[in-house]
Amino acid sequence: KFRIEDRVAKVALVFSYVLLLLGGLFGFLQVLSRTPGMPKLETAQLYYEGLTLHGVALAILWTAFFIVALAVFVITRELNINMNGPLLRAGCILAVVGSLMGAVAILSGQATVLYTFYPPLQASPLFFIALAIILIGTWFIGAAVLEAIWRWKKLNPGKEVPLATYGVFTTIAIWLLATPPLAYAVLFRSLPMSLFNAPVDVLEWRLWFWFFGHPLVYFWLVPAVTIWYTILPRVLGTEVFSKTAAKAAFMLYLIASVPVGLHHQFVDPGVHPVYKYLHTVLTYLVAVPSFITAFNVIATLEKAGRMRGGKGLFGWITALPWGKDPVFTGITFAIILFGIAGFSGVVNASFNVNYNVHNTAWVVGHFHLTVGGGVTLTFIATSFLLVPLLFGRDYVAKKLLIAVPTLWFVGQLIFGIGYHVAGLLHAPRRTFTAEAGYLNDPNLLNTLHLVGQWTPWLQLGAIGGVIFALGGALFLLLTFVSIFKGPPFRMDGAALQISPTPEKATFFDRLGLLVGIALVIIIIAYSLPAIEIYTRGLSPAPPYWPTGAAAG
Ligand code: HAS
Ligand 1: which residue has its CA nearest to atom 44? Predict the structure, then answer.
């Protein structure tokens, strides 16, 4: 029934795992190379090339392709509806072709510009054309998802949108709201820069890049939260504690995740502090749905623990299947990692405290625990269910599966602690420190304030990095073997129920209205800095080809 949809989901899923492998390999090389006392596996040039590939392959592509597979699976199974085949297929082909072109540009050394590709860093036009093609592909896929939900709503008037589909809708809506300014920056600024050496106004570019860059993180997070609200309770034989609170959280993510980008630009000159402060306040607003999620998920776990006979204040915690069920263990470990990272995010968001951590290893610690911990570990654990359902093959060596989330969790935790503390001591991010003289010179090491103190924390980070790289390698090995050689998997006759049974539609199901509210807040938050920048007039800077260590 879902032949085309399943084919697209399978291609997207396998491609996401290939990207996880490629990006993960370069992450492993980096964490060692930038740690004092560890083998240097990279030169400066390779470090920046590898860092670009690491960021693009993992942050942008692994997440996006996994989300496409998940979205298509949820929509078809939950709404029992076919999606627009040509749109879906064209979108998938464009996204894959664009990703391959981008990989060629990076691997051939023509795009050493990191995943943020800030101008005036120059890269080959191939890289920017690849980005544009990927974007168009994702819009096609987004359109196919929205069209299916819209059709289902017309067929089911008065019925509420099921929870997992609601999460998918929120994810896609955030993506579609966030990406047009990125398309503008890529097509009208970066591409002319790379084709004709056209100068670019860095501040204008960064405004539109971060308009996209922050909602991007909620595009990653919301599908993970969707899994916490739906699959996690199912695995425990229950339902989410409060469906209404879950929908309220999704609604807040939708309306507050875009107008906060200036919190990445606190140190940029030329933007009025009042506008930065407005974005600070809105950033605290977007932390609220995560707090609601914390409450709702823990209440769900407590409900499940008590159903399993857990008694007293903490007995429900030990009654849960820790270490037994890899899906449960992976998802809850992911939530704990996200909890820690959430608090470092709140530190980042503080207008004045941010100056202490900006561009330091602290930020690396933060985003590894969010997107690498909370999101990626959730996706890994969900793969244990999704791969058999889509490919009809069960996992091999099932007893080994539990080692995957365990290694990932322990490794991320250690890495996160090491990099957060190193960042507090002002260890920089995105710097090939092996080349940065001071780490190799014992005299400087002893005299320069703080530098010597980074060493043990970066070393701790490297130990963590190696541990979770092992978990990732094991996951990919087991997954690829299972996809091709796993024993046949048959679903027992029962229909697949992901979300709690839908009831009557409520305010939350007025999807158009919610998108309208989001647009109004975005216009307020972004018109002010945009007017400031354009009325002052642009000051374009000539492009600059990064070479080795200069690329940071
Ligand atoms: Fe962030 C930088 C602020 C969430 C990813 N972030 C980044 C970058 C990435 C990223 C990739 O304000 C780097 C970009 C670059 O290359 O420059 N972030 C926040 C805030 C939140 C937040 C306030 N970030 C995320 C998520 C990400 C992500 C989610 C990916 C998925 N972030 C920032 C800021 C910067 C930044 C600044 C720029 C810094 C700079 O100077 O460059 C919030 O949404 C977080 C809210 C979350 C919570 C946690 C709730 C807890 C839950 C779990 C409960 C579990 C429990 C179990 C209680 C408030 C749901 C036990 C828990 C324990 C604690 C043990």
Answer: 287
Select from 209, 205, 207 the least CA-distant residue to 182: 209
pLDDT tens sequence across 147-186: 999 999 999 999 999 999 999 999 999 999 999 999 999 9
Is 430 inside a domain boundary?
A: yes
Q: What's the pLDDT score for residue 552?
A: 35
Q: Under a CB-based contact definition with an 8 Å cutoff, are residues 332 and 301 in contact?
A: yes
Beta-bridged to residue 488, according to DSSP, are 393
Cβ–ligand 1 contact at 347 (below 6 Å): no
* Ligand 1 geometric centre to CA of 520 (Å): 24
- The per-residue pLDDT for 416 is 98
Q: At 375, list the tokens.
A: 């999101």
pLDDT at 356: 93
Alpha-carbon distance of 511 to 468, in angstroms, equals: 39
Cβ(288) to ligand 1 under 6 A? no
Give yes or no for residue 256 CB within 6 A of ligand 1: no
Mutate to test the pocket of ligand 1, among 174, 363, 364, 417 (most ligand atoms within 8 A of CB): 363
Distance CA 411, CA 400 (A): 17
Q: Which of 306, 405, 391, 386 is nearest to 74 (CA)?
A: 386
Could you give the number of structural domains in the chain? 1
- How many CA atoms lie less than 13 Å away from 352 in the CB half-sphere? 0
16 Cβ closer than 6 Å to some ligand 1 atom: no
- Specify if 401 maps to a domain: yes
Residues of the chain with pLDDT under 70: 433-450, 492-495, 547-552
Whole-number pLDDT of residue 89? 97
- Torsional sign, CA 463, 466, 467, 468: positive
What's the gap in Å between 345 CA and the centre of ligand 1?
4
Q: Any idea what the CATH number is for the domain that residue 487 is in?
A: 1.20.210.10
